[in-house]
Amino acid sequence: MQELVEGCRRRFNSYGGDGSGDVVAEGKTKTMIEMLLALQAKEPDYYTDALIRNFMMVLLTAGTDTSAGTTEWALSLLLNHPHVLKKAQLEIDNHIGHNRLIDESDIAELPYLRCIMNETLRLYPAGPLLVPHESSEQCTVGGYRVPAGTMLLVNAWAIHNDPKNWEDAREFKPERFEGLEGNRDGFRLMPFGSGRRGCPGEALAVRMVGFGLGCLIQCFDWERVGKELVDMNEGVGLSMPKAEPLMAYCRARPVATKLLSQIETTVVIVEEYSHLWPKIL
Length: 281
Ligand code: HEM
What we know:
The protein is mostly helical. The strands form four sheets. A two-stranded antiparallel ribbon has the order 1-2. A two-stranded antiparallel sheet has the order 3-6. A two-stranded antiparallel sheet has the order 4-5. The chain has nine helices and eight strands. The longest helix has 32 residues, at 49-80. The chain has helices at 2-14, 32-42, 49-80, 82-96, 111-123, 156-160, 202-219, 254-274, 277-280, and strands spanning 23-25, 28-29, 133-134, 139-141, 144-146, 151-152, 220-224, 248-252. Strand 4 (139-141) and strand 5 (144-146) form a beta hairpin. The relative contact order is 0.14. Bound molecules: protoporphyrin IX containing FE. Its cofactor is heme.
């Protein structure tokens, strides 16, 4: 991780300037680490390298398994509901056409994809009990007196799967969110928690899971490995992984071959930093 910080420091210093603002140079936006290095220049005693390393580790830990797991649950659900997969593919084809790869900024324009993400997070929230909260003072929750200093766990999974809150609660029906995409829908759906200790990565997660899932749907046709449905049992782990990892067949769609040149550009960017990946964790 320190090597990654050093790499960013070299890049950051090579741009010169005082480091203020969101842009380093030539219209390039600062990375998160470069933002922190700019703060370090102003307050070196607080924004130490150790703080930056730990900050990045928290983001990696909290953001990786949750987003990857949600994508895996979503694809599993789609494989078990091929008509939903077809509808999502049609939405992407109609909106984007066949000449370019889906982009993060398209997600807001793909309401059905958003419905699929909401419905996946409803059925399989990566933080089923959110994270433990503690009451800083005495309060009343749902008619119960909660003394100060009590640990409170919110069972989001139970709220999301409660037939009192949802019709056909255990059914995968993305259509139930039509017209509600991007809205919180009260406290019935809270896969990212709520309030000031709610997930700070929510917007990033929606964009990245949407982008990843959108790419998989746009570029490949998917099929189950056999006739049986994909196993949807939950395994043991903090971010509620699948009990059985997803296995599926995929076939590149004709549109994917056209888009290969764009994917190659992405690979080159990833490779620039690839030597660091084994050392990050
Ligand atoms: C699908 C993906 C994700 C899900 C389902 C998810 C869910 C959650 C939940 C339920 C909480 C606890 C909220 C509460 O108790 O009220 C949380 C906290 C947190 N999440 Fe996420 N998260 C996701 C992605 C991310 C990403 C991408 C990042 C950052 C890159 C991130 C960073 C954090 C952090 C730092 C906290 C702790 C916040 C605090 O304690 O104040 N999460 N997340």
